[in-house]
Amino acid sequence: MQGSNPMNITSKLPNVGTTIFTEMSQLAQQHQAVNLGQGFPDFDTDNTLIEAVYQAMREGHNQYAPMSGHPLLKAAIVGKHAAQYNCHYDANTEVTVTNGASQALMASILALVHSGDEVVVIEPFYDLYLPCIELAGGKPVVVPMIAPESSVDSYYVDWNRVEQAITKNTRLLIVNFPHNPTGIRAKANDLDALEQLVHKFGIWVLSDEVYEHLIFDGEQHLSLSTRESLKSHSIVVSSFGKTFSATGWKLGYCLAPKKLTIEIQKVHQYMVFCVATPMQVGLARYMENSTVYEKLSAFYQEKRNFLYEGLQRTAFKPLKSEGTFFLLASYHAISSVPEYEFSRWLTKEHGVGVIPVSAFYQQPQSAAANHYLVRFCFAKQEATLAESLRRIEQIGI
Q1: Fewer CB atoms inside 10 A, N or C side of the chain?
Q2: How many domains does the chain have?
Q3: In the listed set 289, 311, 332, which residue is the last one of a domain according to the structure?
Q4: Average pLDDT of 222-245?
Q5: CA distance 309 to 302
Q6: Is the pTM for the entire model greater than 0.90?
Q7: Sign of CA dihedral 386, 390, 391, 396
Q8: Average of pLDDT values for 79-95?
């Protein structure tokens, strides 16, 4: 009997290829385009933070940290959440410092989702969610948001649709506020709806809150941890890389009830064991001054306003972002081609790289995923944003 060829490889992720972020960044580089696609700042992090990490290295904090995170940083995380959200987590049993928010999300999904479990995901969504669910053996159940119909509208979640998607096999619901790519923030009614779902179905919620410190127009981020009924059923994930403009450092964390944290750390310890020690110590000391994250909203709001007002002088119709460092703009007055095609054209012909919002849908080529919207990243120097606006100001006019 002929056996199978051990050299054959059956992919665990057959539908995964090069990400849209890598593709569009490469295209931007090839055509000397200004890259407003991939979500990273084109300016450096605060030198005070760099010096704090350097000082930690000089002091000898260069060996393994405890698996769950350095005590100084875990205490800083707990203190920040208590001050901002009036909620308490136990630093010893409910905090895990991770190799970026991506690893926090992956470890959480692998820890909770078993073969055959269903996971409800709201689209558009960050592209990491579905592959993680599939690797865990779970089944993603995708529920679309209601898309905007004009430039004065915004996306919003229809929680009735979400409830209809929940079955006896539902293990987990993934939410993301402030939301990438749409820029919407959580409102009180969103938390009301989540409370009702948790009460009715007893499901776990994975809350991706990596843009928690980037909320605009005087509003506050409503973390799921602000309500005890949600906190007791949720894993809250955040990112130091996003918060402190150091995306290449890949530091994040997750907060969860003790019984969930135990399972998450079982996965975490075999994925990375621990995170870079001097960065943890440096971050902890840097965060002793709370203004380093409290001032971020105003800093990024200036950039949002600059790009939003500039786009209003073009044929694009921008949607005002409520949070994150992204905003969406409609190109309906310029072209009727699908979003992917338009994004490539804009990058190649006009030298401005963007991301098609359709890339955040399960079926990017479908009509349901294409609303003539592209995503701009405004986490850039003003000169970078100004040059982008200069390049597109005459398009379609």
Answers
A1: N
A2: 2
A3: 289
A4: 96
A5: 11
A6: yes
A7: positive
A8: 96
